[in-house]
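User: quick one, sequence for these tokens?
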């Protein structure tokens, strides 16, 4: 009787261990694997560092305004630097707030998408979404000014070599 009871306990423990080890659990922090979420975090850190630098620069410019000698005409330039820097700080604060909201929105979206993909046993994160995001970011960061000289230089440059054509095919024939 004791022998069969021990066997039953051992088999129940083994079955429980297999059940716990074999179960897949969803990742509680899927945002750590999302490249878009990671990029948004980098953007926020960049804006915060720019904001700190601008605030430091504003203090320096305010000190410069106080040190300007009267009736030399330099006060206008010193005040303009202060006003421009204050405007820059205002824009950076708005951008910081926007990035924070964008990160929070992405966090909620990522968690919903990850759970849906996990239950459907689909691949996550979607590589197409990351590629589309990178393409969108490169378009947003591209220069919006028209420069005819740059376009002429780009047209004169030799076209890039197609991928997969190495030096072994330079003879002109197929091997």
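Assistant:
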């Amino acid at each position: 009787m004791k022998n069969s009871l021990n066997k039953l306990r051992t088999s129940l423990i083994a079955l429980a261990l297999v059940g716990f080890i074999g179960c897949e659990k969803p990742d509680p922090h899927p945002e750590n694997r999302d490249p878009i979420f990671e990029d948004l975090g980098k953007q926020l850190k960049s804006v915060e560092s720019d904001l700190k630098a601008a605030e430091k620069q504003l203090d320096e410019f305010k000190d410069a305004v106080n040190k300007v000698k009267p009736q030399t005409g330099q006060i206008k330039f010193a005040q303009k630097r202060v006003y421009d820097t204050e405007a820059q700080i205002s824009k950076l604060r708005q951008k910081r707030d926007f990035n924070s909201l964008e990160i929070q929105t992405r966090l909620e979206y990522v968690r919903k998408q990850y759970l849906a993909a996990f239950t459907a046993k689909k691949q996550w994160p979607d590589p197409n979404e990351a590629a589309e995001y990178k393409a969108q970011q490169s378009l947003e960061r591209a220069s919006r000014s028209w420069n005819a000289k740059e376009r002429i230089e780009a047209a004169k440059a030799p076209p890039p070599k197609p991928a997969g054509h190495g030096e072994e095919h330079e003879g002109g024939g197929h091997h």
